[in-house]
Design goal:
Helices cover 13% and strands 30% of the residues. The chain starts with 5 loop residues before the first strand and ends in a 10-residue tail after the last strand.
Length: 83
């Protein structure tokens, strides 16, 4: 896939994460109010998510500097101009 071997994977009822041999880790979490307070360098956002929720929760959780912090997928209203 990306050439980095996963060393540990965890899947729970509310989120999932994988840690790689190089020390990186990726976390997948659901889009709900309790996600407030989490921080991410990049957020992969389903375009079907409500625009208000995106602006009030996801935007504030994403620290994308010095690069673009949002990648959108799927179909729906959200697009790169909302960031």
């Amino acid at each position: 896939m990306i050439g980095i071997i996963p060393s540990r994977e965890v899947i729970t009822k509310y989120n999932a994460w994988v840690e790689f041999e190089n020390g990186d880790y990726w976390v997948a979490t659901g889009a709900w109010e309790s996600a407030r307070g989490r921080k991410a360098n990049i957020s992969y956002v389903d375009r079907a998510i409500n625009k208000e929720f995106f602006n009030t929760v996801i935007k504030h959780c994403t620290i994308g500097f010095p690069y673009r912090g949002f990648l959108f997928f799927g179909e729906g209203e959200l697009n790169e101009y909302d960031t």
